Request: fold
Amino acid sequence: MTSSQPKNSFPKTVWKFISDYWIDIPNGLIPILLGITGFFNNGNYSSLIINSDQKKTIEFWTALLIVVLTMLSLLFFVLNLQRGRRFSAIQQENESLKKQVLTYDTVIDEHTDRLLSSFAKTHLKFGSISGCYERITIYVHDPLGYFVPIGRYSDNPEFQKKGRSKYQDNQGFIAKAWQENYYFKNDYPDPSANPIQYTDYLRSEGLPANTINKIKMKSTLLFGYRIRDLITDKPIALMILESTKKNRYKQRDLQSKFDIVNKDISTLVQRLKPILPNISKPREVGL
Reply:
């Protein structure tokens, strides 16, 4: 079952084409019109003209048209130059934004990597169990309804790579963790032995199929810890711990360990908060 096209789709398409290429269209038409006027100006039409007065009239309007077309050609040549300059300015602005994002990324990475790696190695003993992989990520909450990841650590370089630029705050485990001070879950199906059950389980938690397909780390244990502002006591961020072994940690132990680093993470988020809007938006457009 297909939906019918709107009646005004063709006029909209034409208008969009004209608005996008209004400078280029005359550049294509002017040479054609000049060729036509040249035909008349060279007298090639004489066999078609009976009256000499008609010939003089055509020669006058032809000459006038040539002058007008020449002036229009010069005008659009100047407009094209100005458009080229604007495009060049936009490119320079994009390059500047890229450098700004890289600078912010560097600042954020320097702060978060040091804190997360120390916490992961000292308190969580990352990498101490063969065949088990862990990961910890800091997500700062945006009032618009999503989380921006600002720091991630794992002993596995592949799992430490940054994923999406933002995460919806109403999908999957991250949504449930945001609603509670602590949230622990380790009853996921084994993704190696039962990949279909694992996928179905994630889907039942509200994750869309396209998101599930992009998940590289198939975690079977997750722990969410909500970070609050030290002054207002309002929730401002989440720390999510993941492990590929469901019995890697116990909930009570994790709560006490995360309480140790709570103040440091909250202070870090507050310090970085002023630059976060400047980095999340450029990341969304691929800068």
About this structure: The beta strands are 134-142, 146-153, 167-168, 182-185, 221-228, 235-243. Residues 9-89 form one domain. The mean pLDDT is 78. The first helix runs from residue 9 to 21.
